[in-house]
Specification:
By secondary structure, the chain is mostly helical. 54% of the residues lie in helices and 7% in strands. It has a two-stranded antiparallel ribbon with strand order 1-2. Strands 3-4 form a two-stranded antiparallel ribbon. It is elongated and about 90 Å long.
Length: 286
C-alpha cells in the first residue's frame, strides 16, 4: 500500500482558512497492523521484565516472612500484594501505553513513529488526552472476538479506514509522508499538500516600506488572513509555505496597487505588512 500512486490512495483533505487544501494519505490495514505488532512486542518485552522484577521482589518478601512465621501454608499477604500490582501494571500497559504515547508524542506510539504514522482529529488538529483515551478504551471492543476482527471489519467498512475507537473519538490514522502533487493544477486551482512541520527562520517584524495610504486599502479580513497564515505556516512543509507566501504577497500587493519589495522575502514582507496593518488599526482607534 505504501507504494501506490497518490491518486489510488485514500486521502484526508483539510481546507484551511487560507483556502489551502492540506492532504494526508490515510493509513491502511498493512501499515497499521505492523505498527501495532511493534507496539505489542514492546509491551510484551516490558511486561516480561516488570513481571520478573515483581517475582523477584515477591520471593524476597516471602523469604523474609518465613523467618517470622511457620504457620500452615495459606495465601500470604505478599502474594495478594504481588497479584494486585500485576493487574495494575497490566491495565497500565494495555491502555496507558497507547493513550500516553499518543497524547504526548503528537499522536504517535513507537510503532507508529517507526512506520511514520500519526493519529489526528478528522479536522487535522492534534489529538488530546481525551481523544487518545477514548479511542484506546474502545480497543477492547475492536479486539472482539479475537485478532481485532471487529476492528478489521470497521476499517474495511469505513471510507477513511477507521476502527470503532476512531469513529467514536473522531480520529483518523494517516501517513506523515508528503504527497508529491503540483502546487497548481491545470485549471489554475490552488492545490497544496501537507507533510511534517518545518521550522521557519524567526525574523523581526519591520515596516513593509509600503506607504500608509496604500496599506490602508487592505481590510480587517486581509489582516485576519495574514495572521491565519502566520499562525499556520509552521505546520506546512518549507517549500509549500514559501509558495503560499509568494502567492499571498502578490495578492496583497495587487490590492494595494503596488509591487512586492524585491529586497525581502515574501514571508518577511507578509510579517511586516501585518505589523503595519495592526499599527494603522491602533492609530485609527486612538
Amino acid at each position: 500500500m505504501g507504494h501506490l500512486p497518490v491518486e489510488l490512495r485514500d486521502q484526508l483533505s483539510i481546507d484551511t482558512p487560507e483556502l489551502v487544501s492540506l492532504e494526508y494519505p490515510v493509513a491502511g490495514i498493512g501499515s497499521r497492523a505492523i505498527a501495532c505488532l511493534i507496539d505489542y512486542t514492546i509491551q510484551t518485552v516490558a511486561w516480561f521484565l516488570v513481571l520478573m522484577l515483581i517475582a523477584l521482589i515477591g520471593s524476597m518478601v516471602d523469604a523474609s516472612s518465613t523467618h517470622v512465621s511457620t504457620s500452615s501454608p495459606k495465601s500470604s499477604p505478599s502474594e495478594a500484594w504481588v497479584m494486585a500490582i500485576m493487574f495494575l501494571i497490566l491495565f497500565a500497559f494495555q491502555w496507558g501505553y497507547f493513550t500516553l504515547f499518543e497524547t504526548f508524542w503528537n499522536g504517535r506510539t513507537p510503532g507508529k513513529r517507526i512506520l511514520r504514522l500519526r493519529v489526528m482529529q478528522q479536522n487535522g488538529r492534534s489529538i488530546g488526552f481525551l481523544d487518545a483515551f477514548t479511542r484506546n478504551l474502545l480497543r477492547v471492543a475492536d479486539i472482539i472476538p479475537g485478532f481485532y476482527l471487529v476492528g478489521l471489519i470497521a476499517v474495511f467498512a469505513t471510507r477513511q479506514s477507521q476502527r470503532l475507537g476512531d469513529l467514536v473519538a473522531g480520529t483518523i490514522v494517516v501517513h506523515e509522508q508528503k504527497i508529491e502533487t503540483p502546487l497548481w493544477d491545470g485549471n489554475g486551482a490552488r492545490h497544496l499538500t501537507a507533510g511534517l512541520a518545518r521550522v521557519f527562520p524567526v525574523q523581526m517584524a519591520r515596516s513593509s516600506g509600503i506607504p500608509a495610504d496604500k496599506v490602508g486599502r487592505l481590510t480587517e479580513a486581509d489582516l485576519e488572513l495574514l495572521e491565519n497564515f502566520n499562525s499556520r505556516k509552521l505546520d506546512l512543509p518549507l517549500e509549500t509555505g514559501a509558495a503560499l507566501a509568494a502567492r499571498l504577497a502578490q495578492q496583497m500587493a495587487a490590492k494595494m496597487q503596488t509591487e512586492v519589495p524585491s529586497d525581502v522575502s515574501p514571508d518577511t514582507f507578509l510579517d511586516s505588512l501585518a505589523s503595519d496593518l495592526r499599527s494603522l488599526g491602533r492609530l485609527a482607534k486612538s
